[in-house]
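Reading a protein record of the kind used here takes only a little practice. Think of the row as the fold of the chain written in a discrete alphabet. With that in mind, consider the following protein and its fold in token form:
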Amino acid sequence: MVVDDEPDVVDLLSLMLESQGYDIITAYGGSQCLEKLEHEIPDLILLDLIMPDVDGWEVLDRIRQNERFKSVSVVILTAKQLTAEVVQKKAPYIAEYLVKPVTKGGLISAIENIASCSRELKEFTDAAKSAGVDQATIDRYIELDQQVGTYKRLSTSLIQTFTKRRLETDGSAKNTMDSIKQLISLRERDLARLRAEIGARIKAGE
């Protein structure tokens, strides 16, 4: 689903995606997006932030509060860099964010990466279930996988937000980045350990 209050942007993004074989649902504003979600649930939503009726953040909040479509991946489209505060607050709820103008290559790459990661996670957890791995362990693996993705997105976003000079001179900015890097390292270590344990169970059951 492509959501933007500017028809030209919706049409352009739709053409980019349709040329790659994607089926597109269009929504010209936040309200229309929420209305269409009641009848059609897409695999992914490209969501503009600045819209006059219901802005992108409000739409995102409503999506995440609705049991029917809260798990749909959302890619934020924005004409400006997000602030560090916003990134830290919203990163757990978005799959990616792209700065306008969006190139076809950048758009397709982001979507394919999200789809690939989702497929890999599903295949691994399905195999774990078949091997008799308990649901609590599987849920923990999914949680860690999502956390690693979240913190990596947060790190990338903050690098784009903080200039190199600011990172060198602003102690607070540097501490934030160092903390994020440490969290990524810790979560990746825990994820790798759990993946190895589950992988051994899967192999033993083959």
Notes: The first strand starts at residue 2 and ends at 3. Residues 117-206 form one domain. The CA atoms of residues 74 and 94 lie 5 Å apart.
